[in-house]
Amino acid sequence: MDGVPRVPEQRRPGSPAEPEMPTEPEMPTEPEMPTEPERPAVLRFGVLGPVRAWRGGEPLATGSPQQRALLAALLLREGRTATASELIDALWGGEPPPQALAAVRTYASRLRKVLEPGVLVSESGGYAVRGLDEGALDLTTAQDLSSEAEKARGAGDLCHARDVLRRALALWDGEVLAGVPGPYAETQRVRLEEWRLQLLETCLDMDLEQGCHAESVSELTALTAAHPLRERLRELLMLALYRSGRQAEALAVYADTRRLLADELGVDPRFGLQELQQRILQADPGLAEPPAPAVRKTATPVRPAQLPATVPDFTGRASLVRELSGALSSASGDGNGDGRVMAVSALAGIGGVGKTTLAVHVAHQARAAFPDGQLYVDLQGAGARAAEPETVLGSFLRALGTADSAVPDSLEERAALYRSLLDGRRVLVLLDNARDASQVRPLLPGTEGCAALVTARVRMVDLAGAHLVDLDVMSPDEALALFTKIVGRERVASERQAALDVVGACGFLPLAIRVAASRLAARRTWTVSVLAAKLADERRRLDELQAGDLAVKATFELGYGQLEPAQARAFRLLGLADGPDISLAAAAAVLDLPAQETEDLLESLVDTSLLESAAPGRYRFHDLVRLYARACAERDEHPPSERGAALSRLLDFYLATAAGIYAMERPGDRLVDHLEPTRHEGLCFAEGTAALDWLYTEGESLLACVRQSADTDRLRRGVDLLWAAKDLAESGANSRQYEATAIAVSEAARATGDHRTEGRARTTLTNVLLVSGRIHQAAEEARLAMERAASAQDVAAGSWAANDRGLISLHQHRYSDGKTFFDQAIRGFSQAGNRAGEATTSFNLSRAHLAMGNVGKAVSIARDGLTLLAELGRTMRLANGHYALGVALTQAGRLTEALSQFNEALTIFVDHRQRLWEGTTHFRVAEAHIAAHRPAQAAQHAEQALAIGCIGGDRMRGNVLTLLGRSLFALGQADRARACWREALRLYEENSASEADEVRTLLAPADAA
């Protein structure tokens, strides 16, 4: 990262400006003593834009341009004194007016009245700004943030470095020192703009290091258009394009750059750019992804004492080993009286996660720091009879050299003697498998220099001063490495994917991996694929995961057996729900309990490590624990019907809440009146942001609940839930999961012969197919949906199916058919009183008229639909109205109006998190800009459309690339334009799109050449 620039002291000639006549002359002969009055509000200043000042949130008058120039010159000196002659040079250069000195004094006097006493001081014949609070000047804040980012990057924390640097860049507010005259201000403008570009390049460089390739292309395209001769930006753009899979465009950027530099400057690109071109041509693997940071090696352990032997195949956990080793090494033992008594680390986690293995490994590593011994005990905390502290203390005292006859009888006396014997020694105590903090407290050393390492299934939040560590499962790489160490490299190398399937089925739990690998190692005739197939059956997976005295189910049984009845019921029923996690509100619905009581139960399960807290208010099971919980539910839940009732309550909760959000997002849309009734009222939200937060947070769990409803009597409600949550598909947030769910429930509905449910299921499937641009598949689903809806007399589904068939007809250039379907849909919506549905379909009808050349009619229909929706409130569908009107106005040549409509649409789409519609709107904005002969703006919006994605899949991506190529060609970047057109042609040909002919025409001159 470039160094942080500081303000140089320099003079530069410039044109003199006539000063204001001095009205309050001031002679800065005696220095003023700064005062420290009580300040009601903090002063802040800005120079990274117009020169401004605020007291708290109130702006202050900074006077005339020359007066602001004086304030800027003083602020940029960062507290140093500027003499009168230096200030005159800063304001007027080498030709100051006759009354320049008097003017400077007047400006200073006026500023002093505006600012707080003691801020602008006079000394040594000059002036200075002093006593500002930290962060009072935006430039200083930017410099500090830049330094922080540089340190974070040096430490390898790129995520923090990028965030900090973006915060620094956000401080710029237009042109630096805007409107401030004088040569000094002009010099600083140039300097600070150059620094801004350097920071921006650094930030974009880190974006690429973090893998944000596609997102960076749009910004880099705009920046290279604005700064065409800045080679570093071109280099970053090439790298971003290459990593986004757009190699041809990356090479085209180089060709455009070489031609531009030759034409403008008569030079070749610098070496770095040339080298990057060669590496791209050679498909250098080093360019594909940023290099992984080096992993620091930890020290090798030395001598044993009471510690059990560490496992020879210990794998991974490097960061935790460092963390725990650091905590243990913090035991001072130097008698400096710093208040530290000892170091205590408490390691908690689910059974089988490797707590003991990790603790023993760390203890061996730390032995050198504890030359006076290492004590170890298994406290049997997970068993029915945990070890008594006085018994453990007796064994510890004997290990420390105490004779049997000298061991006291009582717990208190043994603990006191134990602490006395450890005084002045450096001893490590490993307390394994603890029950709770009360069992551990008497066993802790009491003096500095000693340390204790505790493992337990419960999180010991009540163990004062302990460094708490929650142990999670292994990473996939660590899990595969452990499996390979046990099984052997040759067997795994030939069946790597099967090995990945095995460790995945084990949930990356170390005990499960060890059991599975041990079974395979003992059976030479088995292949890894045989083991993977055995573990693929979820109902038998826990039975397969046992070898000798090692069994995953047995370790879970220990924890389950210690639960209270209410905890055990919660554990069983929550395990029934699919999905990656579950919210507190959803869990309350499953258990049919109040939220507070539910939270207490769930938190108690977290404390036992049978449940994990994924985030505040969200909980999840480890995959194998979930299977065990379901087995417990089948075995122990009475009556058995309670299992289905729990899932029914969960489905009701999701459906009621999603329906409420649908109604909030689409006032006037009567779909919610046609959904299956529920017994749960669901959640209510006061405003849309919280509602959308819930929907997108719950997306995966909600869809999993729908899939669980297939082949059950809950299918109707499941399909209605999928329909009410259609934003998950249209936004692109959960499109793949949504499609898989729609297929599953469609097949289930077809098997039941329930035409109403099948029609609705196929309507949801049509919707997601249209979003992804698979028109032929969507056409068949929409036809079947319309037939089933008609058979079931389901007006709601039939109207939406007709609307979808109209959209499909437009894609197939059957515009008259499209108009017919849209008219049919509007009649259906009108019959059902669904005004929002009428308006939405009218926007599509506008597109049909537009395609048939009825531009005026199209504009009129879109405007009428927009007026109707506006009466219903500012809804998400209002954005579709602005979008449709913008498209019609663009074709009518009313580009300024069109852009205004698109901007309105973008604001609403962004607010409602409809990213695919946001990307599609950027494409339409680009169309308007190219029609207005503004290729740079068109290219920027087209790049944003590519980075975000669009409704319509690969076909729409081809449209965007075609338009981007036109924009780049107009900007003189011909090679990159042709690269875009070639990629568009490939997409069109793969999708049999008629637009391919247009692109072939664009490429024809190049092909002929």
Q: Proportion of β residues?
A: 5-15%
Report the sheet with the most strands, covering strand number, pairing sense and barrel closure.
5 strands, parallel
Structural domain tally:
5
**Order of strands, widest sheet:** 8-9-10-7-11
CATH superfamily of the largest domain: Winged helix-like DNA-binding domain superfamily/Winged helix DNA-binding domain
In short:
The protein folds into five domains: 1-210, Orthogonal Bundle (Arc Repressor Mutant, subunit A), CATH 1.10.10.10; 318-470, 3-Layer(aba) Sandwich (Rossmann fold); 476-555, no CATH class; 638-833, Serine Threonine Protein Phosphatase 5, Tetratricopeptide repeat; 870-1008, Tetratricopeptide repeat domain (Serine Threonine Protein Phosphatase 5, Tetratricopeptide repeat, Alpha Horseshoe), CATH 1.25.40. It contains 44 helices and 16 strands.
